[in-house]
């Protein structure tokens, strides 16, 4: 019997734009879409498989028998199933024309079975009653470069777990995580990828479903409610997103129609040896529609405040991987298709949603990552400063006796500080695979370990750039992060941990309040280096400036466990200065009790400043000093 051909409105027009690479909402016509035909409710199933011999649809609605789909020009197969029900399972059978049928997921599905099961689930983009209009209005008015951005990075199933090892639901996370993040002084929660992925050990970075929350986390609607509640508490939500490569499981995107479909034709470009994945063909127009639609889907439909784009370097360089590589037409290693795709992606997203954040995890010295496309840049808002992260961790892992002579590991960032807009990350990648937790990295007994941690994060806040802490960093967890278990919250009962958590909350709140720490992160006028060449004592001093001349903070970092007495520090104005923060204060687990110090200036030029003060600097400490009553500048 010939099947009735039923399609969604503007179906062929949608196929055209998808094939042109200009569709930003391909999820509205591909996948399982609820539809009514002649008064009969059902679902329209549509899939792009341009080189398949035939495509079959099978599922709960037809007793899992292969049912022929109809091919439209442009490589899209479609079929309307009357009375198909939300929640039913289904797959596509891809006929290679040689007697072999391969059963695949729906790449545009909005829900999947929980692994090891692997069927797609009949689901659609359903209406959701948002209550975050006030947040979105504030977001639209905000200058995203001169306001605080303090990110709490987390893995969705290992922040906390129930006693039986079961995961928190999004509702439970909303009840506990959102108030905690707000109390601790963070502005945003950043999730490791929440999209559907079969292997938990991949942490979400080997994705199969680009339009669905993974079943272990919940449903799309439950995640929307989490975002809704976060926004009502003035907390933004960012998610890691992986457009460079994908899980090579045979039931998913890999060689979808029996030929290279989402991946490159060239096996050297397609194979990602190091990660065991397949690389997207970023020059293929349909893949561009697929990926840009995915980015838009999460930002528009879920009201996400940004995407952290993973492994950008893998998209920029043909030889980034471990395996053999094919040079491009001019013999170089630049992936020109990858560059053009990233530019197109950022332009498209920012034209539609100018106030969201596009953040690049890019690990090379390539320039103009955060410059406009019109200037030859990639168009990202921010780039993770991986060089800064590597240098600072190398420095703090040293025995303090060697730090003064290696101070350039800390100060080298000043040489390239304003070439990009940076996020400073101490991320999940730094506390796994034998690298130790942040606490485990630093030398000394527990007292000195926590003193080091306070210096690390006090210096980090003061350094120009936005802030990212991975979960557990703020409590001084000793064990490395383990994706299969919750954080070691019991550590808060041990000596120094709770005081350290209080310290992290204190500096985060200063990061929200003190304009000097966020207004000019990306402007040279936001930083005055006083002394970056103290290779004998290992003390670094600089000034952070807000936009108003009186909004400034003097930062003093002592990287060694030796108190420095009668140290002269240059200051810009005559008057009195006071201690805003001393990381060695007793309330934070240190030894210092004289916290209310006030310093009176002397008419002695120092550090290229017209006035100076004399300070005692505690061992292994960070001090913030602010003007109390100064002359020569208006309030």
Outline of the structure:
By secondary structure, the protein is α/β, with parallel strands linked by helices. Strand 7 and strand 8 (101-104) form a beta hairpin.
SSE topology:
Elements: H1 11-20, E1 31-37, E2 40-48, E3 54-59, E4 67-68, E5 70-72, E6 76-82, E7 89-95, E8 101-104, E9 120-121, H2 133-141, E10 150-154, H3 170-184, E11 188-191, E12 195-196, E13 209-213, H4 220-232, E14 236-241, E15 245-247, H5 267-270, E16 271-272, E17 277-279, H6 285-301, E18 306-309, H7 312-316, H8 336-352, E19 357-360, E20 382-384, H9 386-396, H10 408-411, E21 422-426, H11 438-441, H12 446-462, E22 466-470, H13 497-513, E23 527-531, E24 539-545, E25 552-558, E26 564-571, E27 574-582, E28 598-600, E29 611-617, E30 621-631
Parallel strand pairs: 10-11, 10-22, 11-14, 14-18, 18-19, 19-20, 20-21, 21-22
Antiparallel strand pairs: 1-2, 2-6, 3-4, 3-7, 5-6, 7-8, 7-9, 12-13, 15-17, 16-17, 23-24, 24-25, 25-30, 26-29, 27-28, 27-30
Helix pairs in contact: 1-6, 3-4, 6-8, 12-13
């Amino acid at each position: 019997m010939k099947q009735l051909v039923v399609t969604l409105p503007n179906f062929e027009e949608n196929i055209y734009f998808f094939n042109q690479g200009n569709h930003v909402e391909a999820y509205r016509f591909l996948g399982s879409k609820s539809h009514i035909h002649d008064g009969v409710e059902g679902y329209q199933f549509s899939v792009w498989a341009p080189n398949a011999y035939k495509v079959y649809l099978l599922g709960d609605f037809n007793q899992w028998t292969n049912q022929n789909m109809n091919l439209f020009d442009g490589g899209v197969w479609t079929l309307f199933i009357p009375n198909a029900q939300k929640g039913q399972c289904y797959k596509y059978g891809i006929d290679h024309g040689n007697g072999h049928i391969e059963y695949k997921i729906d790449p545009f599905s909005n829900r999947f079975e929980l692994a090891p099961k692997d069927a797609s689930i009949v689901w659609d983009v359903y209406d959701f009653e948002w209550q975050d209009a006030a947040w979105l209005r504030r977001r639209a008015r905000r200058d995203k470069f001169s306001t605080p951005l303090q990110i709490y990075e987390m893995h969705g199933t290992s922040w906390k777990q129930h006693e039986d090892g079961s995961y928190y639901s999004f509702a439970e996370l909303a009840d506990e995580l959102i108030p905690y993040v707000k109390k601790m002084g963070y502005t945003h929660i950043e999730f490791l990828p929440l999209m559907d992925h079969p292997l938990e050990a991949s942490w979400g970075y080997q994705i199969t479903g680009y339009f669905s929350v993974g079943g272990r986390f919940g449903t799309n609607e439950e995640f929307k409610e989490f975002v809704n509640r976060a926004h009502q508490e003035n907390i933004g939500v960012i998610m890691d997103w992986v457009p460079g490569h994908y899980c090579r499981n045979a039931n998913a995107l890999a060689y979808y129609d029996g030929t290279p479909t989402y991946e490159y034709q060239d096996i050297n470009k397609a194979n990602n040896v190091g990660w065991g994945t397949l690389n997207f063909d970023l020059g293929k127009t349909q893949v561009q529609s697929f990926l840009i639609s995915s980015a838009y889907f999460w930002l528009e439909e879920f009201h996400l405040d940004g995407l952290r784009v993973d492994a950008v370097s893998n998209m920029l360089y043909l030889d980034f991987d471990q395996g053999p590589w094919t040079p491009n037409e001019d013999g170089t290693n630049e992936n020109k298709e990858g560059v053009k795709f990233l530019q197109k992606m950022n332009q498209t997203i920012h034209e539609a949603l100018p106030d969201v954040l596009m953040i690049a995890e890019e690990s090379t010295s390539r320039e103009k990552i955060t410059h406009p496309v019109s200037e030859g840049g990639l168009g990202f808002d921010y780039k993770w400063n991986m060089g800064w992260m590597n240098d600072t961790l190398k420095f703090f892992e040293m025995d303090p006796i060697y730090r003064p002579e290696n101070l350039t590991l800390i100060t080298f960032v000043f040489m390239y500080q304003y070439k990009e807009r940076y996020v400073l990350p101490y991320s999940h990648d730094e506390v796994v695979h034998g690298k130790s937790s942040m606490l485990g990295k630093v030398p000394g007994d527990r007292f000195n370990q926590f003193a080091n941690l306070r210096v690390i994060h006090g210096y980090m806040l003061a350094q120009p750039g936005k802030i990212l802490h991975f979960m557990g960093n703020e409590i001084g967890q000793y064990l490395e992060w383990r994706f299969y278990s919750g954080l070691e919250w019991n550590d808060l009962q041990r000596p120094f941990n709770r005081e350290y958590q209080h310290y992290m909350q204190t500096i985060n709140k200063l990061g929200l309040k003190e304009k000097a720490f966020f207004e000019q992160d990306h402007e040279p006028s936001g930083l005055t280096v006083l002394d970056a060449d103290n290779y004998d004592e290992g003390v670094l001093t600089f000034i952070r400036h807000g936009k108003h001349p009186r909004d400034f903070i003097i930062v003093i970092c002592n990287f060694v466990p030796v108190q420095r007495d009668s140290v002269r520090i240059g200051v810009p104005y005559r008057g009195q200065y006071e201690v805003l923060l001393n990381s060695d204060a007793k309330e934070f687990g240190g030894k210092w009790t004289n916290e209310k110090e006030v310093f009176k200036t002397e008419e002695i030029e120092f550090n290229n400043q017209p006035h100076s003060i004399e300070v005692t600097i505690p061992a292994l400490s960070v001090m913030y000093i602010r003007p109390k009553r100064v002359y020569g500048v208006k309030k």
